[in-house]
Automatic annotation (TrEMBL), chain A:
Pfam name, any one: ABC_tran
The ABC transporter domain, residue ranges: 31-261
Region (Disordered): 1-21
Keywords for this protein: ATP-binding, Cell membrane, Membrane, Nucleotide-binding, Translocase, Transport
Protein name, per record: NitT/TauT family transport system ATP-binding protein
Composition bias, Gly residues: 8-21
Highest taxon of the lineage: Bacteria
SUPFAM superfamilies in alphabetical order: P-loop containing nucleoside triphosphate hydrolases
GO molecular function: ATP binding; ATP hydrolysis activity
InterPro entries: AAA+_ATPase, ABC_transporter-like_ATP-bd, ABC_transporter-like_CS, ABC_transporter_ATP-bind, P-loop_NTPase
From TrEMBL, chain B:
PROSITE patterns: ABC_TM1
Residue spans of biased composition, Gly residues class: 14-23
Region Disordered, annotated ranges: 1-23
Keyword Cell membrane: yes
Coiled coil: none
Family: Belongs to the binding-protein-dependent transport system permease family.
UniProt-recorded name of the protein: NitT/TauT family transport system permease protein
GO terms under biological process: transmembrane transport
Organism: Streptosporangium saharense
Domain ABC transmembrane type-1 residue range list: 147-328
Length: 279, 344
């Protein structure tokens, strides 16, 4: 159930990549989380958030992470992004330990946190500009804006965007760096149901085309089952892996397929939101 | 300013030309349907025409030159307002300023009649419009050079103080060690009015000019430093996190994240600094450099040349209000992303 750490996600291992769609093999962006425990200090006392977490995620794989609110999902992504150092344990990408943030690992934050003093276009330009590549990658900025459907609002300031548009802008800002590992922290949380479906499709197409490794944190079990190769269910804080559910149904998926319905019920049961919770 | 889409919608709403009208607690003034004539401006034309007639037709009871020229100027003002009110492109703006144009006409009539025409407010303490003009014109070489000297001292002192303040504020917010050493100095010496150091500065500095520049610099430096430091310390961690995951190094974090995020506060500091630099400027000129408008005011007052003193005060108003306007314009440009920015 728990991904075993021996089967490392080092550069040699490409077998875990989810299927042979698009036919392009990618050998980067594999993740290994080895016995990671993380504690925050809250009111001077340690608050354990992750409890000896061990995971292996193959390169090019699309993994969803679900878990109760406050269980430590965002913390896991922050550790992978290199924004926090774990209290114990280690994290690797392609066999190399994570030592800090790196543009090859992009994080789409739970809050869009766009820079309010920059227009949408200039927000998307942050990545290329910070890496000193703005001159050569200006076209890519325009293409990425096109991709998330914000071309018409390229010159708007964040205060002029709706919540969903801001999230799409944040997504574009992460994608423009063409990351090997894309960490998504409920990136579609603020979208209405229709836009959400459309964006899920876009995200999936993007992933099929580019085959980066994707880790999607979400509250929406349907979303997880529709998109991911596998769903990791975390427990309440401190988070452990409750289940690691492979999703093998062929894409495109409709969540009312029988197999997915069973998996959905299983996951909701684990999260304490299954049929029992309603009686 | 706004997204082009939004701008289009707004522009489609009226045909009288845009600009001038302000959004805010008073509502969108003047954004009506169709063309509305600027009534107050037409009234201002009348007021200024009357002012011209009074100036030209009433006999002077004070001994003043240029009366007929002044009457012609008033008539030209009336004519200019009339022409502008009829030009559709600026009609919106003229409508906005119409009441003020009329009010300034009243003020002119009161001033001219109470001095030149009836001698109720008499020399040497008061002067008529043409008397003020005569005083300024007769001494224009000295006034212009005083103005330019004040401007130079203001620009040099303010720029040095602003740059020093921003740099000090950034390094205090960024490096704990700098903060440890600079903070006590800032908090003890900073609040002392820069002018209190004048005697000491005059002794220490090689020239009174460099001393005055230094005095202005510290007057600006203090508020700019305090507000830059607090502005940058208040920048949320999330902004740095985002920039770092996108590949930003520390230079990028300082200049492209921290400074823009703190800019609203930095501008507050700059405005406070500009205010105290005016005070320091006048004191420095009166007691130190013996040059500039501050010195000119002091000097003319010394031998009761009040009309010339008023002339220098008028130029002082132009200097200070002009400097404020420039800074406000800069701020409006730099902070145009802020939703409800108060404009100058
Ligand atoms: N910087 C911090 N300092 C102290 N405690 C923190 C900090 N960040 C997070 N926590 C705590 O860690 C726990 C896990 O937080 P985290 O944001 O990882 O949860 P989450 O699973 O993403 O929740 P949600 O689904 O609501 O976003 C929470 O109890 C939170 O209070
Ligand atoms: Mg979270």
């Amino acid at each position: 159930m728990v991904g075993n750490s021996v089967n490392g996600a080092g550069g040699t291992n490409g077998s875990t990549a989810g299927g042979e769609v698009a036919g392009r093999t990618v050998t980067v962006g594999g993740v290994r989380v080895a016995g990671v425990t993380h504690e925050y200090a809250l009111h001077g006392r340690p608050l354990p958030v992750l409890d000896d977490l061990t995971l292996t995620i193959g390169s090019g794989e699309f993994t969803a992470v679900v878990g109760p609110s406050g269980s430590g999902k965002s913390t896991l992504l922050r550790l992978l992004a290199g924004l926090e150092t774990p209290t114990r344990g280690r994290l690797f990408v392609d066999g190399r330990p994570i030592q800090g943030p790196h543009p090859s690992r992009a994080l789409v934050f739970q809050d869009p946190t766009l820079f309010p003093w920059r227009t949408v276009r200039r927000n998307v330009e942050v990545g290329p500009q910070a890496r000193g590549k703005l001159g050569e990658q200006r076209d890519r900025v325009g293409e990425t804006l096109e991709l998330v459907g914000l071309s018409a609002f390229a010159d708007a300031y964040p205060s002029q965007l709706s919540g969903g548009m801001a999230q799409r802008a944040a997504l574009a800002r992460a994608l423009v760096n063409e990351p090997e590992l894309l960490l998504l922290d409920e990136p579609l949380g603020r979208l209405d149901a229709l836009t959400r479906l459309a964006m899920q499709r876009e995200l999936l197409n993007l992933w099929l085309a580019r085959r980066f490794t994707a880790i999607l944190v979400t509250h929406d079990v349907d979303e997880a089952l529709r998109l991911a190769d596998r769903v990791i269910v975390l427990s309440d804080r401190p988070a452990r892996v409750l289940a690691d559910v492979p999703v093998t149904a062929p894409r495109p998926r409709l969540t009312d397929e029988a197999e997915l319905r069973v998996q959905r019920r299983h996951i909701l049961d684990l999260l304490g939101a299954g049929a029992d919770a309603w009686t | 300013m706004t997204a082009s889409a939004i701008g289009d919608v707004e522009r489609a709403g009226h045909s009288g030309g845009s600009g001038g009208s302000t959004a805010g607690p008073y509502g969108k003034g003047g954004r009506g349907v169709g063309f509305r004539p600027p009534v107050a401006a037409y009234f201002a034309v009348l007021v200024w025409a009357v002012a011209a007639a009074l100036t030209l037709l009433l006999p002077d009871r004070q001994d003043v030159p240029y009366t007929s020229a002044l009457g012609v100027v008033a008539a030209l003002v009336a004519l200019a307002v009339l022409v502008l009110a009829l030009v559709a492109r600026v009609a919106e703006r003229i409508r906005h300023w119409g009441p003020w144009l009329a009010a300034s006409g009243y003020w002119f009539v009161f001033w001219e009649v109470s001095t030149a025409k009836t001698d109720r407010l008499s020399v040497p303490y008061f002067t008529s419009p043409q008397g003020l003009w005569e005083a300024m014109w007769n001494d224009h070489d000295l006034l212009v050079s005083s103005f330019l000297n004040s401007l130079r001292l203001l620009v040099i002192g303010f720029t040095l103080g602003a740059v020093a303040g921003v740099l000090t504020g950034i390094s205090m917010a960024w490096w704990r060690r700098t903060d440890y050493w600079v903070h006590p100095i800032l908090m003890s010496l900073g609040p002392v009015p820069a002018t209190a150091w004048l005697p000491l500065i005059l002794v220490i500095f090689p020239s009174t000019y460099s001393g005055s520049v230094f005095m202005m610099t510290i007057a600006v430096w203090f508020p700019v430093t305090v507000l830059t430091r607090s502005g940058i310390s208040g920048v949320g961690r999330a902004y740095y996190d985002v920039a770092q995951t996108l590949g930003a190094g520390s230079g990028y974090l300082v200049w492209r994240v921290a400074v823009p995020a703190a800019l609203p506060q930095i501008f507050v500091g700059l405005f406070m600094g500009l205010g105290s630099s005016f005070i320091t400027l006048v004191v420095a000129e009166m007691l130190g450099v013996k040059d500039g408008l501050g010195w000119y005011i002091q000097w003319t007052k010394g031998w009761a040349a009040y009309p010339r003193m008023y002339g220098a005060i008028v130029l002082m108003i132009v200097l200070c209000a002009g400097a404020m306007t420039v800074l406000f314009k800069l701020r409006s440009r730099a902070l145009r992303w802020q939703k409800d920015l108060v404009r100058w």
